[in-house]
Amino acid sequence: GVYTGYSLLATALALPDDAKILAMDINRENYELGLPIIQKAGVAHKIDFKEGPALPVLDQLIEDGKSHGSFDFIFVDADKDNYLNYHKRLIELVKVGGLIGYDNTLWNGTVAAPDDAPMRKYIKYYRDFVLELNKTLAVDPRIEICMLPVGDGITLCRRIK
């Protein structure tokens, strides 16, 4: 998701002028919230925004075959219950040597908490999905990982196979 566009703007500013970003969000209003700043920064031409669920877009990219191994960097901050579904697709789209970043992989610190620790209902619900993602990434032989303890945790995955 792009939410307010902050990460999208930072990425667009860091990339060369001819770079392209595929940004997705289920709500166009989230993208449009940050669009004036993106336009003012002069980087709107780098962004191709797609509204709607990401999985069908990713499936289409895989199906057409042209995008296989073509992405240098992918950043995921979306519905945690689909992170594993994203990973299954994104690993095909990122090139060998490319990076996939998953946001919120510490999930409010709950990934290190005992199962019976008190947690808000939605935190507890999504915790299991984040834990499963973390376990899957740790044993995926196609990637090397580094979990960064910044914010709510970001796991970087470098595709090696």
Q: Outline of this structure?
A:
It catalyses: (E)-caffeoyl-CoA + S-adenosyl-L-methionine = (E)-feruloyl-CoA + S-adenosyl-L-homocysteine + H(+). The chain is of the alpha/beta class.
Structure notes:
It comes from Garcinia mangostana. InterPro entries: Cation-dep_OMT, SAM-dependent_MTases_sf, SAM_O-MeTrfase. The protein is of the alpha/beta class. The protein folds into two domains: 1-52, no CATH class; 56-160, Vaccinia Virus protein VP39 (Rossmann fold, 3-Layer(aba) Sandwich), CATH 3.40.50.150. It has five helices and six strands, in the order αβαβαβαβαββ. The protein has helices at residues 6-14, 28-40, 54-64, 83-93, 121-139, and strands at 21-25, 47-51, 71-76, 94-103, 143-148, 154-159. The chain has a four-stranded mixed β-sheet with strand order 3-4-6-5, covered by helices on one side. Strands 1-2 form a two-stranded parallel sheet. Helix 3 (54-64) packs parallel to helix 4. The longest helix is centred in the last third of the chain and has 19 residues, at 121-139. The two termini are 27 Å apart.
CATH class of the largest domain: Alpha Beta
What separation lies between the terminal Cα atoms? 27 Å
**SSE string, helices as H and strands as E:** HEHEHEHEHEE
> According to CATH, what is the topology of the largest domain?
Rossmann fold
Order of adjacent strands in the largest pleated sheet: 3-4-6-5
| Structural class by SSE content | alpha/beta
Unreliable stretches (pLDDT < 50, length at least 5) are: none
